[in-house]
Amino acid sequence: MVNRKDKYDVIVIGGGLGGLTCANRLAMGGFSVLLLESHNKLGGLATWFNRKGGHIFDVSLHGFPVGMKKTCRKYWSKDIADSIVQLKGIRFDNPQFSFSTTFDKVDFKRLLREYFNIDQETIDGFFSTVRSMNFYDDQSMTTRELFEKFFPGRNDVVRMLMEPIAYANGSTLDDPAITYGIVFSNFMDKGVFTFRGGTDLLIQKMEAVLNENDVDVKLKAKVEKVLTKNGKVTGVVANGETFYGETVISNANLLSTIKDFVGTDSFDDDFIKEVNNIRLNNSSCQVYMGIKKGEKIDYIGDLLFTSTAEKFDSEMLCSKEITSRTFSIYYPDIRPGTDMYSIVASTNANYDDWAHLSEEEYKKAKAHLIETTLDALEKYVPNARENIDYIDAATPRTFKRYTHHLKGSSFGTKFEGLKVSMELPNKIGGLFHTGSVGIIMSGWLGAANYGVIVANNVDKYLRKC
Ligand SMILES: Cc1cc2nc3c(=O)[nH]c(=O)nc-3n(C[C@H](O)[C@H](O)[C@H](O)COP(=O)(O)OP(=O)(O)OC[C@H]3O[C@@H](n4cnc5c(N)ncnc54)[C@H](O)[C@@H]3O)c2cc1C
């Protein structure tokens, strides 16, 4: 391997779960790795923040599939994997139905049979169809067509099967059915899981592992440019300083990587045509509510998918006039010993609804978001207003500011982005992309697993070099 000070085998731009996992897997393989992160902490969207009154808020720790346990055990540590625990109470409440579930295959099959009166053959047919879906399948069928095939005219069934996945990866009924099938099946395996100790502990543990594996981490290092020569990467420029590397892996937004870091002139016209057709995924709004020290919330479930909309509609999920909210209730058990409760309400959102507001309009819209969220919460936590002593909101503007994702995208790009992300190293030697892309490779599990896939490709490339 090369002298660390002069040149790295690998430079990773961005410390989200994709970048972190990729960096760690390559360092475990013996390569010298430099990770440059623009923020003052690692984690990307897997983040948290502290506020006075002893509050800690998790931004994206609402739930992930059991597969995260295996990924963490194999590519991080047993200690990290052992802190992953199941959420038991997932609740749906909307005008079409209201019940609690453990959100796994056994319970979803039971609900489809007993609550929605679907016959067993159709249920089994649906589950085996989605279970067998993979990336190499026919991609022309949409999720809408998949549901119409198995549950024609049953908007209520579609809502139960689709609404949580739309929250988990921003997918809509018009996206390819495989983007739904793969993610839904991952959740249906064993249910929804979380990290006991909170995002802060997870990232602290990951930092310790990176340190053990000799990954050089530089925070507050914003990459401006990826340097190339004769069709190969040579390094990056961050805050005006040049770092040299044999390979560069960008965990930043795919479109910023191609258009801003490298520049469209470095690619052929056909490729740029494909790049220009890539759509970004939606963004999010959140309201963070901290319960006063000493006050309690009775157990009402861990994750509440609530809606006042009569029917499920993908577009309405992103509307600024919010009808659907996911409440994550954090009981003291998430951070044993703290005895604090907090609630985070999340909704999908369109960046353009928020981007062009004047400062005054923006303030008003944020205040409206907070007030209407409190109104909605009172149905489930009747004395919420009196017991909350910290409240604030994040909007698509907030997500853009902290992660630099174009349009504050929460889940990278739509499906067409995945092919372009995978083709990058064929266009410029040593240039790779990892992290949220193509719907499938998003969320904690998707981003981390894509980190491993890309690390394997980088490993092969470096060994060939
Ligand atoms: C509100 C919300 C709730 C969510 N809830 C869940 C959930 O419950 N479960 C789940 O599984 N997923 C959830 N997600 C999605 C999940 O958090 C993300 O898909 C995943 O964390 C993204 O990881 P990533 O590797 O793509 O990188 P990101 O987290 O997007 O990180 C990219 C990193 O690159 C850095 N970067 C960008 N540009 C530069 C630059 N020029 N120089 C240096 N660094 C740069 C950024 O600062 C950032 O740290 C949620 C997302 C949002 C927004």
Radius of gyration of CA atoms, rounded to a whole number: 22 Å
CATH fold name of the largest domain: FAD/NAD(P)-binding domain
CATH superfamily of the largest domain: FAD/NAD(P)-binding domain
Average of per-residue pLDDT values: 96
Report the top-level CATH class of the largest domain.
Alpha Beta
Outline the secondary-structure elements:
Elements: E1 7-13, H1 17-28, E2 33-36, E3 48-51, E4 55-58, H2 67-75, H3 78-82, E5 84-87, E6 90-94, E7 97-101, H4 105-114, H5 120-131, H6 143-150, H7 155-169, H8 177-190, E8 192-195, H9 198-212, E9 216-218, E10 223-229, E11 232-238, E12 241-250, H10 254-262, H11 269-276, E13 283-291, E14 303-307, E15 324-330, E16 342-349, H12 351-355, H13 359-377, H14 384-387, E17 388-394, H15 396-403, H16 416-427, E18 431-433, H17 443-464
Parallel strand pairs: 1-2, 1-12, 2-9, 6-14, 12-18
Antiparallel strand pairs: 3-4, 5-8, 6-7, 10-11, 11-12, 13-16, 13-17, 14-15, 15-16
The chain binds flavin-adenine dinucleotide (FAD).
Flavin-adenine dinucleotide binds near residues 14, 59, 284 and 346.
Give a brief rundown of this model.
The chain is an alpha/beta fold and 465 residues long. The protein has 17 helices and 18 strands.
